[in-house]
């Protein structure tokens, strides 16, 4: 499935009118390849939302900017929603900064860790 997705993404058209993009966990491969392809095909993107979950594939710590570059000159906001202490956040921040996105444009929102729900019994 991963090979088919990568092959299809390579042939993806350019989305020149795309301004806002929200991506989930599935685009976060170890080398960020699906994310890079989307960014390369959305040159006029202004706002990017990434929603990360707790269980995930580990991202390579040493992602090289060469080959993972994109040009979204209009990108004014990157919003990362993730669990607290998600080790992917520093890698993503480094990735965006290496591609010319200022740290001030990157916001990280931590979701509270999953807590078991307490059920209340009502007695009559």
TrEMBL record:
Lineage: Eukaryota, Viridiplantae, Streptophyta, Embryophyta, Tracheophyta
Name listed for the protein in its UniProt record: FBD domain-containing protein
UniProt cross-references to PANTHER family, sorted A to Z: OS08G0197800 PROTEIN, OS11G0201299 PROTEIN
